[in-house]
Specification:
By secondary structure, the chain is mainly α. The chain is 71% helix and 0% strand. The chain has 4 helices and no strands. The protein is globular and about 45 Å long.
Length: 93
């Protein structure tokens, strides 16, 4: 039942809730990502790439994670950042 309701919502909205940003243009997505990176960099005090690498080292070494973040949250952030960086470098070629 829930699945059929979800399917109807997806069809009506034309958007996949599992991929909420796929309807954005590259420019809109870049703007949102830049805004998020600015916030993270301001809070962490380092560049996004450095922050992601520090989080990866913390997870690998089983060190404490930032307050409010689970290991799964950190792994998701790392995977998203690396996937985005890989996609961007591939398109830049």
């Amino acid at each position: 039942m829930a699945r059929s309701i979800l399917d109807r919502i997806v069809k009506l909205e034309g958007r996949n809730p599992a991929r909420p940003h796929e309807h954005l243009t590259d420019e809109e997505l870049d703007a949102r990502l830049a805004a998020i990176a600015v916030r993270i960099e301001a809070e962490a005090g380092v560049k996004m790439a450095d922050y992601v690498e520090a989080l990866a080292r913390a997870v690998s070494a089983d060190e404490p994670l930032p307050e409010g973040m689970t290991k799964m949250d950190v792994q998701g952030l790392i995977a998203s950042f690396r996937n985005l960086a890989s996609t961007r470098s591939h398109h830049a070629k």
